[in-house]
């Protein structure tokens, strides 16, 4: 086994959300019922290590769910490193959100997938209650443990760079991560390559394809059984579904009481529904959104589309105010692009830059610096942002200084001006007053089609 198999296993569950889930159920079956709904960041590392054959290297042969003890075990084995100096792909990285270097203060854990300057790229479990890629920096990192992974075999294939190639494009063409190509060839930011360069390619055979995710069969329920005062097995399935989404209905007892109704109301409001759509009594939409199926329907509701959750808690990215949903999109784009993004302007910025015409007054809108980037890099960043679900346009002189304007598709807190730009996006326009054609390719994810 190897660092590649460990990371491939983590990648195989990207997007897993809520609890219980495949990780917490596995851990609870081994260690007790409490863990089925407990914090699960370190359980995720343990699960991936065990199922990828790296259990001894990563965990020393013991199950770990408590980050402080896990870091202490690395220290006891002489594998602990404080801070981030020398950190690399495959290291198990531990965080303290208060910024200390104390093992006793550790809050969270993930695995390093790449290092790009000061950016530490990770996969983490239980980050916003899901498995996701993140970009981290030294100010929140206590240190890291370095497992004694067996060395992975590498291939000797090569690729000759052609005009117009980027590392990202080459990686997609040959089916390997562009970051691995950069590491193997000693390339560092700004990752300059030239036509005629011969690049060595990482071996692909050493990394097994991730297993196909298990698709659970949704429970069938009858709407007539889901009403206040009802007591039946359909209510029990409904309560389980609410709890798996993080909305506590009280005991899973099959009784549709006040706590179950209140949990249903909270879930409905989180979907953006109002009035009778958020009255605590489920209809077909509520049932489908919870992953259940109505008796008599021929197909289950569609699986998650990959759309970021509608979480609008205020936070920051690069020192600029955004909401949590936008931050997730920006982090996704940053990982795709291979470096963190610098914001010129964030969201909720009423009275900001006059040229923005009110688009930043609400949520979901940012301006991104392209300073120091080549034309190809600017265009590639637009594509990365679009793949993450942001309507993104490169703004150019003479009307603007070079920057990228991006609007989070589907954001429920957009200003009226930003909503007008999304209406332009829907018909492939450029989001400006003259409503010119969109000049860039359109690689938006499938979930954005619902907003066109």
From TrEMBL:
Annotated LysM domain residues: 157-201
- This protein's record includes keyword Transmembrane: no
Recorded hits in CDD domains, A to Z, give: LysM
PROSITE patterns to which the protein is assigned, alphabetical: LYSM (PS51782)
The protein's superkingdom reads Bacteria
For this UniProt record, the keywords arranged alphabetically read as follows: Hydrolase, Signal
Region: Disordered, residue numbers = 433-452
Give one Pfam hit by family name: LysM
Write down what this protein is called.
Answer: LysM domain-containing protein
């Amino acid at each position: 086994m190897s660092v590649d198999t460990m990371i491939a296993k983590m990648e195989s569950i990207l997007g897993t959300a809520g609890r219980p889930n495949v990780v917490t159920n596995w851990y609870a079956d081994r260690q007790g019922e409490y863990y089925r709904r407990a914090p699960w960041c370190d359980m995720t590392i343990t699960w991936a290590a065990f199922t990828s054959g790296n259990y001894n290297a990563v965990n020393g042969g013991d199950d770990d769910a408590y980050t402080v003890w896990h870091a202490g075990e690395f220290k006891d084995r002489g594998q602990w490193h404080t801070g981030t100096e020398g950190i690399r792909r495959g290291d198990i990285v531990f965080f303290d959100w208060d910024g200390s270097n104390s093992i006793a203060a550790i809050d969270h854990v993930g695995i390093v997938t790449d290092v790009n300057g000061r950016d530490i790229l990770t996969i983490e479990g239980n980050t916003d209650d899901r498995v996701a890629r993140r970009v981290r920096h030294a100010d929140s990192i206590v240190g890291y443990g370095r497992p004694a992974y067996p060395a992975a075999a590498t291939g000797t294939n090569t690729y000759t760079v052609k005009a117009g190639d980027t590392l990202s494009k080459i990686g997609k063409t040959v089916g390997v991560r562009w970051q691995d190509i950069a590491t193997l060839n000693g390339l560092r930011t700004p990752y300059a390559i030239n036509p005629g360069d011969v690049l060595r390619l990482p071996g692909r055979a050493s990394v097994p394809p991730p297993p196909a995710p298990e698709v659970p069969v949704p429970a069938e329920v009858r709407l007539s059984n889901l009403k206040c005062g009802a007591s039946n097995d359909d209510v029990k399935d409904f309560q389980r579904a609410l709890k798996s989404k993080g909305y506590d209905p009280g005991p899973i007892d099959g009784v549709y009481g006040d706590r179950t109704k209140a949990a249903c109301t909270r879930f409905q409001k989180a979907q953006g529904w109002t009035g009778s759509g958020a009255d605590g009594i489920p209809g077909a939409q509520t049932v489908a959104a919870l992953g259940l199926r109505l008796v008599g329907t021929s197909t289950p509701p569609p699986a998650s589309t990959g759309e970021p959750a509608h979480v609008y808690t205020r936070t920051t990215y690069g020192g600029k105010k955004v909401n949590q949903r936008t931050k997730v999109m920006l982090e996704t784009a940053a990982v795709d692009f291979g470096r963190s993004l610098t914001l010129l302007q964030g969201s909720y910025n009423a009275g900001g830059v006059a040229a923005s015409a009110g688009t930043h007054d609400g949520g979901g809108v940012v301006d991104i610096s392209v300073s120091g980037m080549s034309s190809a890099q600017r265009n590639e960043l637009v594509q990365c942002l679009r793949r993450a679900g942001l309507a993104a346009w490169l703004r150019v002189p003479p009307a603007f200084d070079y920057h990228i304007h991006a609007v989070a598709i589907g954001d429920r807190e957009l200003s009226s001006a930003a909503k007008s730009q999304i209406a332009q996006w829907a018909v492939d326009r450029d989001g400006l007053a003259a409503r010119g054609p969109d000049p860039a390719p359109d690689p938006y994810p499938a979930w954005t089609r619902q907003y066109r």
